[in-house]
Amino acid sequence: MSPLLSRLRGEGLFARVMRSSAWTALGYGASQAMRLASNLILTRLLFPEAFGMMALVSVFLVGLTMFSDVGTGPSILQHKRGDEQDFLDTAWTIQLARGVILFLATCVMAFPVAAFYGHPDLIWLLPVAGISLLINGFEPTRIETAIRHLKVGRVTLLDLISQAIGIVSMVILAFVFQSVWALVAGWIVSSLAKLVLMNTFLSGQRNRIRWEPDAARDLMHFGFWLFLSTACGFLVAQGDKAILGKYLTLEHLGLYNIGFFLASFPLLLGQTVTGRILIPLYRESPPKDSAENFTKIQRMRLSLTGALFVMLAIMAFSGEWLVGLLYDARYSDAGGILVLIAVIQIPQVIGMTYDQSALAAGDSRNYFLLTAARALLLVIGMITGAEMMGLVGALIGQCIATIAVYPILVWLARRHGAWDPLHDSIFAAVGLALGITVLVADQTAIRALIALFGVGP
Fold it and tell me: 132 pLDDT exceeds 60?
């Protein structure tokens, strides 16, 4: 153990990757544990309709964020000038302007969104929740600098503290007012706490408004394709809720949201880890450059996918029991949703470590093509499935869409020397066996889902 611990304490690439991965995993696990604890408390203070309403609000906040992302964060992570203050200040200026525009956008779109979904409360909920987007625009680029150098420990701790502050305020307000407004207020408090903590406790120069033409040109060139990618990425990340919001009642959407929250823990954990470590890792150790680099990344990929598969299996086999343990009888139908979501996420886990290789190489254009294909196939799959079989059909359509986009993912990964056919073959076989076993073992839950949500819209 001594040589291993010695390597983990060093400043080499392996040590920084392992430390960053551990911090990210621990941070995400602690974050989800806090969210779960708050969720358990809030479900006893609020009704399912409140969670359905917040699901709609979050869809549009995340949508605005993704539809306006010009890639300042990934640009800092991969650009050769990512440590220069002029470059960082220009990126921060762009980010600040974006935050102001996003807040104004929530004000403009509130009325038409409320009219479309038939929920007048959204007229006020959206603009107030949009204050959190304005606050996020002021976050310092020291966060990206720490991630660029795979030093994420302090960033993770500060993230957790700010989340804890937001959750405590949310629970207190929910206890006092028993209203969906408590959830909105908690978001704002958490965003404000994060801004103060990051500015106070992260080392480095403070950002100031600056516009350097060369830096702005590079940021905009890289960010243009990433902007299009994140616009499509909204449909990938939030398309399920946006589409199901039209097909399900607020109560059923709230049940779906709870099932998704629990079932997606492994997938979102993997995305969080890869999002923080893979661009720096691919940048410093490109798999295309040598067999040694490829082998290092292959080992990381095998370990990560294997761990996520174990977690998916646990979620799938224990879904109904877990929901029954954590929630009261009003939320029992979320158990079957959890089981099905865990199964349909298996193909996503297999291919999650490839696309960041394109961003590390500055290939935002082809990254956009992949994301656009994902979004198009997802929307087609979910709407077609929802029209045919309601919620169950929408989830099946989502799974088929993920499999259909795999050839494009392979094409992109091969361009940057990242594709690993051995890894994919092994886990495709394991995933198929796991999915069949779960569905055969839990047919009761699937039948109950079909009966609950019906066939057709």
Answer: yes
